[in-house]
Amino acid sequence: MILEISLAVMSVLFITVSYYAIKFALTILKMQESIETSLDTLEQKHNSIAEILTRPLFFENSEVRQVLKDIEGARTAIHKVAYALSENFDEDPER
After folding, report:
1. How far is the C-alpha of 75 from the C-alpha of 48, rounded, in Å?
2. How high is the pLDDT of residue 23?
3. Which residues are CB-neighbours of 48 under 8 A, at least 6 positions away?
4. Coil, helix or strand for 61?
5. What is the pLDDT of residues 28-57, one digit of tens each?
6. b or e along 54-74 (b: 16 or more beta carbons within 10 Å of the residue's beta carbon)?
7. What is the pLDDT of residue 95?
């Protein structure tokens, strides 16, 4: 009798733990996919900004130079964020 009750309680606990483990795993997979998509977007924007920064500057205006410095700062920030997010997900050593 005690064995059957113990088995029933353990079964309920096992089912409950399994449910939450699967739910947590799916949440992690969704988050990883979202981070990977965000990293792809950041990489595209980083490349676009890097390409813009290689163009020669036609205005000697101080405001234009300040905007250029701000764009360089934004490019650096994008690179740092992308690196920080991908630091622990480096599954492909070729990247």
Report:
1. 9
2. 95
3. none
4. coil
5. 998 888 888 888 888 888 888 788 778 776
6. eeeeeeeeeeeeeeeeeeeee
7. 46
User: For residues 49 and 74, is the Cβ–Cβ distance under 8 A?
Assistant: yes
Q: Dig out the tokens for 77 from the structure.
A: 């920030």
Using alpha carbons, select from 73, 72, 92, 76 the residue that is nearest to residue 84: 76
CB-CB contact of 57 with 68 (8 Å): yes
Give the domain ranges of the chain.
Answer: 2-86
Pull the structure tokens for residue 68.
């250029």
SS3 35: helix
Q: Does pLDDT of 92 surpass 70?
A: no
| Distance from C-alpha of 95 to C-alpha of 92, rounded to nearest angstrom | 6
